[in-house]
Amino acid sequence: MRLELRGITKRFGAFTANDAIDLVVEPGQIHAILGENGAGKSTLMNVLYGLYTPEEGEIVVDGVPRTFAGPGDAMAAGIGMVHQHFMLVPVFTVAENVVLGQEPMARGLIDAGSAATVVRETAESLGFHIDPNALVGDLPVGVQQRVEIVKALSRKAELLILDEPTAVLTPQETDELIEIMRTLAASGTSILFITHKLREIRAVADTITIIRHGRVVGTAEPTTPETELASLMVGRSVSLGVDRAPAQPGEPGLAVRGLVVRDAHGVPVVDDVSFDVARGEIVAVAGVQGNGQTELVEAILGVTTPEHGSIELAGRPIDGLGVRDRLDAGLAFIPEDRSTDGVVGEFSIVENLVLDRVGAAPVSRGGALDVAYLRRNAAERVAEFDVRTTSIDREVGTLSGGNQQKVVLARELSRDLSVLVASQPTRGVDVGSIEFLHRRIVAERDKGAAVLIVSTELDEVLALGDRIAVMCGGRLVGIVPGGVSRDVLGLMMTGMPPEEAARQAAEHHTLLGEADLAAELQAPDGEPAVVQDGAVVQDAAVVQDASHESEEQR
Amino acid sequence: MTATLDAPTPAAATAAAALPAPPPAYRTPIVLAVLAVVTAVMALATPAGATNVRISTNTDLFQIPVFAVPGRATAWLLTVLVLAAAAYAFVLARGRRRIPVWVIVVAGVCALLALLVLISAGKTQVVPVTGLLAGTLFLATPLVFGALSGVVCERVGIVNIAIEGQLLAGAFAAAVVASMAGSAYVGLIAAPLAGVAVGALLAFFSIRYQVNQIIVGVVLNVLVVGLTSFLFSTVLRENPQLNSRTALPTLPIPLLSEIPLVGPVLFRQNLLVYLMYAIVIALQILIFRSRWGLRLRAVGEHPKAADTVGIDVNRTRWRNTLLGGAVAGLGGAFFTVASGLAFGKEMTAGRGFIALAAMILGRWSPTGAVAAAVVFGLSDQLRILMATLAVPVPSQFLLMLPYVVTILAVAGFAGKVRAPAAEGIPYVK
Asked: Which residues form a coiled coil (chain B) (predicted)?
């Protein structure tokens, strides 16, 4: 299919999410759309898929202008979409999900046989196998994604939209997805591939369109260096690399011993996890989302009660302590979801900066808040942490993700702390702020804090971790030195022990791993590889330049 | 590139690691064990002597004479059966397998029969088993209709607390229209329409205005009670001819109704009960195997997924909420035309809520709802029997029996069931 978007404009009230976007996708082309979080990529795809109606512009399919009143129209025109959050019914079988909305009928009832055949044949044409009778909820996310692809193709999709498809995948699963994408493109299906990950784009795309602040700001070839793509995406010159002194581990900071946490169904979600974090080092926990990381940090904070095990802070057991006492003992905590757990969106910056300290001096005196102190504190923190805002009285909910996260960090780091636990510290944060947040975290380490980072982004894990712990299915698979290859981490994320993972990774490189290796051998121009612990670390997509641009959205 | 294809697939490892087996859940076996203990206590308390049982009716093909069943032995046999159900449930739970609804139903029925033996042993009155079972089925009828209405509405994502109101509206409409037309059958047409009207209000507020569905349901129940009571004490009192007793005739099905025991119970009922059979079978098949059912369930589980394949979520919800209202309204006809009674104030007496419990206990499936409704119907029937056997228990306590059984059933067995995921959540794009 040849798809052409002409001048697509979509507004939400006064906010323009897409501003006169032009785009052409040729048949059989893998067309990547690159942009930061909030750049308007998902809005554009929802317009294309009929979920939103654009204010201006037209969608032209194979030369014919079309209007889509709903996803049904888009599908009828041959457009299929794999959403970031899968549109699958977990309690249905694969076959039921695939045929939903276009069920094959026999004698008044659904023809289960031909539904299963559709699944099998479509999957086989892409080179994999799926059991049509498996319940979708029982399948790993990588397989669920394939069900989504089969679902789209069984509707005769000639253009497939993939919205951030690799966010939930291990590197090995990402590889398999790339294979599927290539197979599809070779058979003539056009693919729109949405991402903010530079490495994947270079590995798979035929052509790249870059979107910033709702506008197309340029197109690029996949051969374009990562730094150049990043500059286009962020809007200023950036350089990639990690700048960080080796760790100086000191006395014990955080110790976790035999921790077991069960969920509401009694399933162990953290299963016998033990590790230490010394003061002056960063331990990064890697793993695919939902493998026990959330429960682990909640148990450390004290909002979840573990079934077994103990937690020590600076050598002192804190198992009997509540959240308040743990914070007072020197624990700082950055939650994974800042909008629900990190800030109160309707409160001002001033108020959010002291949320955890309102009970005591200097924040309150004689039972009343010391407003003068609060304002002074806010002004200082906003300056120190470079929070971009028009006023310290602004509601935090109106700030961009990066600035909200800076407020959280400013609050947590403005106390004396011995242990910092940060969960997804840069999720949904613009590239410019990521580097700042990372530098602050490293600075806390250098001041002597024990730092535990939980991240599902391998780039972040590699950028920050002095040691890297990998979790899978609630278990700690192993702890490896920082700077280990992403192939090894990827295999460990599937539960493979470190030695086995290292052996297999040496035998088979993933596509992205091969790209790394090639870059290492060629010693890319102007990009110094930082050698650490004998391993090459040069892949972290961290933007070095801190000259921030306006990040405030809406 | 080929190397990567040969690489071991991590999918299997991920699947194994991501899905650790949950620990066994012993709640249901424990509750069943407690029930076995209760049954054993009843067996201990059973007086010596026999229960006289009659299972034949005059029209059967052949006659089985009245015979005596030894009370204590029967009570102990029933205890063993409950114990067996508990043991089976325990084995299933240990193997982490689902405990089917029928195990719970068998145990409940055995416990209730033990109660029957307890109160009838050593007495001269004859226990008419056929009449008892036929009465059970008959009393279960409004519960089945109400529960089916709940299944349809909740499967599509709309919580239907208004079943009580729909039953009452159906009862009222059936009585009045049948009286006006002079035919009970016309009442059967009016009843579902009244249920649809209540369902339309539920849909209007919960879909169009996204009002909390539980609150809308409760308010609708109050509205229907108020409205029918008002009309009853004004219009119907002044015009008694509008609320006369019309009864659906019993329609014995030739041959089938002459089978001993089964015949009189299942096939000597009125049209409403036969309609119930048809609707249960149809819904059981259609909900799980038809296009309508698949879309219905998709909308109730993951409305956005349904939307992205071109299913109009809110239209689907509207239609099926109306359908659910019609089913419950038809069930309302039980109270008036099917029972041969005139309409009375608040005559549904909370059956709508028991129907809701039957739906939950039956795990949102039509056949499960029937099984659960039969347990409740039996407890209702026992209440009537205990009154005729002159059991020395205050009648108020007897009246409580069906509700006590409801609370025990829902608290003891319904803990693990899973409601449709999007139930009660309005769909906004």
From this structure: none
Give dist(CA B284, CA B101) in Å, integer: 15
Query: What are the structural domains of chain A?
Result: 3-234 (3.40.50.300), 252-464 (3.40.50.300), 502-553 (no CATH)
Cα gap A52→A70, rounded to integer Å: 8
> What distance in Å separates the CA atoms of residue B299 and residue B243, rounded to the nearest whole number?
41
Token output for A190: 């056009």
Q: Cα distance from A429 to chain B (closest Cα, Å)? A: 26
Which chain B residue is nearest to residue A98, measuring alpha carbons? Answer: B309
pTM of the model: 0.78
pLDDT tens digits for range B183-232: 999 999 999 999 999 999 999 999 999 999 999 999 999 999 999 999 99
CA pair distance A157, A90, nearest whole angstrom: 23
The pLDDT of residue B412 is above 60: yes
Q: What is the ipTM metric for this complex?
A: 0.82
Question: What band does B23 get if pLDDT is binned at 50, 70 and 90?
Answer: low
Asked whether B364 and B306 are in contact (CB, 8 A), the reply is no
Q: Write down how long chain A is.
A: 554
Which one, of A77, A71, A97, A208, lies nearest residue A149 by Cα?
A97
Lowest-confidence range among A8-22, A253-267, A369-383, B96-110? B96-110
Q: Is B16's Cβ below 8 Å from some Cβ in A?
A: yes
DSSP character string of B381-396: HHHHHHHHTT-SS-HH
- Show residues of chain B in contact with A103, CB under 8 Å: 291, 294
> What confidence score (pLDDT) does residue A539 get?
37
d(CA B178, CA B190): 8
As a whole number of angstroms, the distance between CA A21 and CA A38 comes to 15
Q: Do A87 and B304 touch (CB under 8 A)?
A: yes
* Residues within 8 A of A (CB atoms), B 260-319 only: 285, 289-291, 294-295, 297-298, 301-302, 304-312
- The alpha-carbon radius of gyration of chain B (Å, integer) is 24
The answer to whether residue A543 scores a pLDDT higher than 70 is no
